Amino acid sequence: MEILKIKGGRPLIGSIPISGAKNSALALLPATLLAETPCTIENVPDIRDVKIFVNLLRQMGAEVAAEGSTLRVDATRVTNRPMTDSGVRSLRASCYLMGALLGRFGEAVVGLPGGCHLGPRPIDQHIKGFEALGATVSQRDGAIHLKAPRLKGARIYLDVVSVGATINIMLAAVFAEGLTVIENAAKEPEIVDVATFLNGMGARIKGAGTDVIRIRGTSRLGGCRHAIIPDRIEAGTYMIAAAATGGEVRLDQVIPLHLEPISAKLREMGVPVTEGDESVTVKGTKNLLPADIKTQPYPGFPTDLQPPFTVLLTQAAGTSLVIENVFEGRLRHTLELNRMGARIRTDGRMALIEGGTPLNGIQVRAVDLRAGAALVVAGLVAEGETVITDIHHIDRGYEQIDGKLRRLGADVWRE
Ligand SMILES: CC(=O)N[C@H]1[C@@H](OP(=O)(O)OP(=O)(O)OC[C@H]2O[C@@H](n3ccc(=O)[nH]c3=O)[C@H](O)[C@@H]2O)O[C@H](CO)[C@@H](O)[C@@H]1O
Ligand SMILES: C=C(OP(=O)(O)O)C(=O)O
């Protein structure tokens, strides 16, 4: 089991490129199952979740060839088989096999998805969507069984704004007869990326990025070439780390508009953020103001950046409030941060963070992906050496985190 060691106290200085978005890549890979000819996907992040998903595609009979960060996926010889192994159960995005296999074969057996433990993560809205399209859905032996001899377009209102349900319904609906309308759809940039990819394959999807998405069914899709959008969560993590260490960091290959919820919050705290065409620069300040964070679906403040942002708030001059509106169990990182010297009190979905608390390097455990990212930021700020265990969680979503941090002058290594 690898660990990360960080000697804190050095400001991050310099520039690094941001990789392709995890949450796009993990939806585009299953989307390739819908194409009759090979797809080429550029800017694929080299992260653990992608490797696991590529293995799942290979298990199903797809040919996947990599050249640098470009993947060529030929899913023409894929056969439908129950997908229930540990890879499926370790990924949240494996739930997209339901929509993609239902769309392609009219039936699917897919194990219940995994992903970060953030409290309950139901899939009732995915199922509501599949049923509205005409599928029968049942759960047996830890797997979802779906069947629909013919999918028919329908009007589907999501009771909660869900990234996963929006994408899954899009995947199933591209071959549904007639018009499917998703109302109260999620608006994340990754959803727009998936719709752009599917449209490149020949699908007819309109409205992605708004809360009403219209999908007119088609009978065939072909492969296409597509470059994944930059990972706004990876970028946001480094923006936070730059601010927390009082450094100056330029992030290249980003879409500044996607980072606006984070840039706006940093500016509110007195941290200058400047935007180029495809870059953002964050300049740390000694006088960090406190701020309140309420996580929301896009374009609100992203839940995935709440854990690392909490660390920044421990360094502000005053008390800050965090309200985690998306996942009820996403404050577990605060326990480890308190062991490092933070003073954070939690109550349900709320955390009250006392600012101006020095952090000390100790051994801590990454309980999930972004809790792990929070500990990395804490380690960069802390006095002394921080040892982070269970870093396989961090590797799920950050490409070469130690290498990128070293390029910015951090004293961090993997053992
Ligand atoms: C692989 C991937 O893209 N993961 C992202 C995706 O997760 P994921 O797609 O799982 O998150 P959702 O947007 O679906 O979840 C949002 C909220 O809706 C609830 N819900 C969701 C579906 C459902 O059927 N019923 C239901 O009640 C969830 O419990 C949660 O409270 O979006 C989250 C919210 O931006 C991010 O944190 C994750 O990084
Ligand atoms: C919650 C996350 O991922 P997943 O949905 O894949 O568990 C995340 O990326 O922070």
Describe the structure.
Cell wall formation. Adds enolpyruvyl to UDP-N-acetylglucosamine. Phosphoenolpyruvate binds at residues 22-23. UDP-N-acetyl-alpha-D-glucosamine binds at residues 92, 121-125, 304, 326. By secondary structure, this protein is α+β, with helices and mostly antiparallel strands. It has 2 domains: 4-19 and 230-414, UDP-n-acetylglucosamine1-carboxyvinyl-transferase, Chain, CATH 3.65.10; 22-227, UDP-n-acetylglucosamine1-carboxyvinyl-transferase, Chain (Alpha-beta prism). The chain has helices at residues 22-31, 48-59, 86-90, 96-105, 124-132, 163-173, 189-200, 232-245, 260-268, 306-313, 333-339, 369-381, 392-395, 401-407, and strands at residues 4-7, 13-17, 39-42, 63-67, 70-74, 107-111, 136-140, 143-147, 155-157, 179-183, 204-206, 212-216, 225-227, 248-252, 273-275, 279-283, 293-294, 319-323, 343-347, 350-354, 363-365, 385-389, 411-414. It has a 4-stranded mixed beta sheet with strand order 21-22-1-23. Strands 2-14-16-15 form a 4-stranded mixed beta sheet, covered by helices on one side. A hairpin with a 5-residue loop joins strand 11 and strand 12 (212-216). It is globular, with a radius of gyration of 21 Å. The mean pLDDT is 97.
C-alpha Rg, in Å? 21 Å
Structural class: alpha+beta
Broad shape = globular
At the fourth CATH level, what is the homologous superfamily of the largest domain? Enolpyruvate transferase domain
Which strands sit side by side, in order, in the main sheet?
21-22-1-23
> How much of the sequence is in beta strands?
15-25%
Q: What can be said about the biggest beta sheet?
A: 4 strands, mixed
The CATH topology label of the largest domain is UDP-n-acetylglucosamine1-carboxyvinyl-transferase, Chain
Give me the number of helical elements. 14
Total DSSP E strands: 23
**Low-confidence regions:** none
- Helical content stands at 25-40%
Report the average pLDDT across residues.
97
The appropriate CATH architecture of the largest domain is Alpha-beta prism
Distance between the termini: 9 Å
CATH class of the largest domain: Alpha Beta
* Count of the separate structural domains: 2
Identify every distinct bound molecule in the structure, by name, code or SMILES: uridine-diphosphate-N-acetylglucosamine, phosphoenolpyruvate
